[in-house]
Known about the structure:
This protein is mostly beta strands. It has one domain. It contains no helices and four strands. Strand 2 (38-39) and strand 3 form a beta hairpin. The structure holds zinc ion.
Amino acid sequence: MSEDKAQPGEPMVPGDKAQPGAENAGEDLCPRCGGTGRYREEECENCGGSGRVWVPVGTP
Ligand SMILES: [Zn+2]
């Protein structure tokens, strides 16, 4: 199984800078919540509570 691997077409969250699951995208810690998924005792809007956001990688 690959439950920790995002599937292509997964909805983007506000903090995503690249399409989740895309070849040229990688996960990074959410800069807002620092990877906790929580911000001020509420779900972090930036990452949708996952603690991670997608960013472009390998771009020239
Ligand atoms: Zn976050």
